[in-house]
């Protein structure tokens, strides 16, 4: 199925799309996803290991892409939902939202790892989406510049100004009292540009 710029898509379309393509839908608009780079995957692996180890004996669960997150607006049927995304990494503390299709509703914590082709989409459309649906904490991890922007929900379900960190920093995860991530370990040694 070729994605059409002016078409309106639903979760039913997402399920019936070609298996060799990955895409997301926000408010009925489709966005193609590009395959991740090795650097993206290395950062994802480190975050998965560190957060996964921390959650080992906790009730919250860690998932990573591809894992469909459906954001209903009201009580529409699943196939009529117009927003479904696949965050790079997500933590879910309300396991009643999990079903065989993925997650229906907002996760508690999402991390997106930026790539040059999706940075604007993650920073604007997805940030607005996650804020609107009450994702408590949202991280934008930039492996190229080795920085992290952290958004946390404040009063009236709005994100405050982002906290910005570098590769030498340790970041406390707002969602948990005792989880701190060392970004030097997450990013690893600086890679030289080809």
From TrEMBL:
The keyword Nuclease applies. The keyword Hydrolase applies. This is Uma2 family endonuclease. It comes from Thermanaerosceptrum fracticalcis. Keywords: Endonuclease, Hydrolase, Nuclease. GO terms for molecular function: endonuclease activity. SUPFAM superfamilies: Restriction endonuclease-like. The lineage of its organism: Bacteria, Bacillati, Bacillota, Clostridia, Eubacteriales. It comes from the Bacteria. Residues 17-183 form the Putative restriction endonuclease domain.
């Amino acid at each position: 199925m070729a994605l059409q710029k002016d078409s309106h898509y639903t979760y039913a379309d997402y399920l019936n799309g070609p298996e060799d393509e990955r895409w997301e839908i926000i408010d009925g608009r489709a966005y193609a996803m590009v395959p991740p780079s090795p650097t993206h995957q290395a950062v994802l692996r480190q975050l998965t290991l560190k957060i996964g180890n921390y959650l080992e004996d906790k009730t919250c669960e860690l998932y990573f892409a591809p894992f469909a997150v459906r954001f209903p607006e009201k009580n529409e049927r699943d196939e009529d939902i117009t927003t479904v995304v696949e965050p790079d990494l997500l933590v879910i503390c309300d396991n009643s939202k999990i079903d065989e299709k993925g997650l229906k509703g907002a996760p508690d914590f999402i991390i997106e790892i930026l790539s040059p082709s999706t940075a604007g989409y993650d920073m604007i459309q997805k940030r607005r989406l996650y804020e609107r649906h009450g994702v408590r904490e949202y991280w934008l991890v930039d492996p190229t510049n080795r920085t992290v922007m952290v958004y946390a929900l404040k009063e009236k379900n709005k994100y405050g100004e982002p906290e910005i960190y570098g590769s030498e920093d340790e970041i406390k995860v707002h969602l948990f009292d005792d989880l701190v991530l060392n970004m030097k370990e997450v990013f690893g040694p600086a890679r030289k540009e080809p």
